[in-house]
Amino acid sequence: MASDLDFSPPEVPEPTFLENLLRYGLFLGAIFQLICVLAIIIPVPKSHEADTEPSEPRSGEARKPKAAAPSTNKRPKKEAKKKR
Q: In percent, how much of the chain has pLDDT > 90?
């Protein structure tokens, strides 16, 4: 009976290329998520240059708004002439 028991380790196939790619991709995704969470938790000090710029108008804001284009749905009314 003791000779019937097999205590050898089970055969584990070598991981394929796609399995390795998936494993390392998951590791990279987890590291990216940790970096994103740390970026939210840890505050970044603002420079003094950024504090003075908001009082100046930006180049995009300095433009004047465009005149409203006439809508294409409204057509000028035609005058009907009676020929009687």
A: 36
Q: Which amino acid is at 18?
A: L
Cα 16 to Cα 22: distance, rounded to the nearest angstrom: 10
Which runs of consecutive H residues, i.e. helices, occur in 1-84? 17-41, 48-52
Name the average pLDDT for the chain: 76
Token pair for 17: 């290329």
Between the alpha carbon of residue 71 and those of residues 37, 62, 64, 68, 76, the distances in Å are 48, 26, 20, 9, 11
Q: What angle do CA 62, 68, 71 make, to 5 degrees?
A: 155
If you average pLDDT over residues 30-49, what whole number do you get?
Answer: 89
- Sequence length of the chain is 84
pTM: 0.42
